[in-house]
Amino acid sequence: MAKLEAHTTLKRLRNRYRLVVMNDDTYEEVVTFKLSRMSVYIGLSVVFVLLTGLTVALLVLTPLKYYIPGYGSRHDRSELQALKIRTDSLEQSILYKDKYLDNIRKVLSGNTDVPRDTSAIKVPKAELSDD
To answer: Where are its TM segments located (predicted)?
Structure first.
């Protein structure tokens, strides 16, 4: 049964049709085409592939590619990366500076959470020699 359906589908694809373009005033045939569904399908597929290839070639081989979002030159990308690194280091130094200033404010106001060591430091005395 599946063989019959496949056979009829293939047969329908190969049936020949005639496309006639006629002059409406004189009914004279201007152009005649003999087509099948298979040839129309193949023709449309070829046109699609050619248009897609032409569009890709146009974007890749011309300066139009710079208008695509996310695409840029190597110089721009390396410059952007250097700027990101520089921004990160500046942000880090600002955080360190803010932390340092907060610690100084705490020490000056006496609000430190660090326990203070009030024991005296025992410094050994240097031995004097009688030479």
So the answer is: 40-61
